[in-house]
Amino acid sequence: MLTKTDYGDILEFKAARTIMGRPLYYNYFFFVDGLLIDTGPPHVSSEIIAALKKLPIEKVAITHQHEDHTGNCYPIQKYLGVPVYAHPETIKVLANPPAVPVYRKIMWGNLPRAEASPLGNTIITSSYTFQVINTPGHSADHVSFFEPQNRWLFCGDLYLGEKLIGFMFGENIAEHLRSLQNIILLKPQTLFCGLKGRLDNAVERLTRKYNFWWDIGCRVRELDDANIPHKQILSKVFGGETIFYYISQSNWGRRFMLDSIIDNITFFEAGQKKGSLAGPDSNR
Ligand SMILES: [Fe+2]
Fold it and tell me: 157 CA distance to ligand 1 centroid (A)?
C-alpha cells in the first residue's frame, strides 16, 4: 500500500505491507525539491518505484540504516540512476546488509545491497540548504535533516511518538536524549517523522517526549539506587513486558529501554522530574 499527500513544497509518502488488505506498519518518506528523504520498505518496492519514476528526483538522503528507510536504495539506483547519500555506518550496512530479525523481515523485508556516498554537513537543492545533524540513539548512524528557513525537520525515527515505552535491542537512551536536546535547540517548527508523517508544533512534541523519557530514567535511577531488582523495576515503572517482546523473538521490548537506562544510570538524577525542558547538561 502506498499513498501520497501533497503539502505544496513537500510530498509525503505513506507505505505499508498489507496482508489480507490490512497494513502491518506504516512508514513515511518524503520528496522535497528534487531530494528524496528515505526510501520506504522493500515489501512495497514495486509501488514505490512506479511512483518515484514520475518525480524529478536528483538525489536521495537516508536518515539511518533500518530497512524501512533504506529498503529501496538499490531499486532507486537501478531504475532512476540517482546518487544516495548516507552516514558512513549506514553505507557499511548497505554494502553488506545483515540478516534482519524475522518480525522485521515480515513487516518490511530483507535489505538489498546498495551503494551510497557519505553525507556532508549540508545537502543543497535548488531552493533549500538542509543541515545534516547527527542524532544518534535510535541507531548509532541516525541523522536528521533541518531546513532553517522553514524550520522543517526530517527526523527519521528520532521522534516516533511522545510516550513510546520500549526499544529495539541496542538503542541508547542517553544518546537519544542528547540528540533530542540538540534538536530542540534548533527550534524546528514542523516534523517529518518516519512513523507519524508531517506534524506541527515540533518543539512542544519533542520536549514532551524528552521529559517523558527523562522522568522514566530518573524513576529507574531512584529504584536502582535503592537496590530494587531490575525485574521489579520493569514491573513498577514499565508495567512489565508486552506481547511484542515475544512476537519480535526478543528483539524489541521494554526491558531494552530499562537496560539502556541502567547502562547510562549516571545520566539520570534520582527522583527528579522535568515539567519543562532542562535535562542534563549536554556534556554529561
Ligand atoms: Fe529505525
Answer: 5
Q: What is the pLDDT of residue 271?
A: 66
Domain ranges of the chain: 2-212, 217-267
CA of 54 to the centre of ligand 1 (A): 27
The CA distances from residue 110 to 138, 151, 238, 241, in Å, are: 20, 34, 31, 27
- Going from the Cα of 226 to the center of ligand 1, the distance in angstroms, rounded, reads 34
Ligand 1 center to residue 225 CA distance, Å? 32
What percentage of the chain carries pLDDT values higher than 90?
90
How far does the centroid of ligand 1 lie from the alpha carbon of residue 40, in Å?
A: 11
> Residue 284 burial (CB < 10 Å; 0-12/13-18/19+)?
exposed
Q: Which CATH architecture has domain 2-212?
A: 4-Layer Sandwich (3.60)
> Over the stretch 87-115, which tens digit does the pLDDT of each residue have?
999 999 999 999 999 989 999 999 999 99
Note if the pTM is more than 0.85. Answer: yes
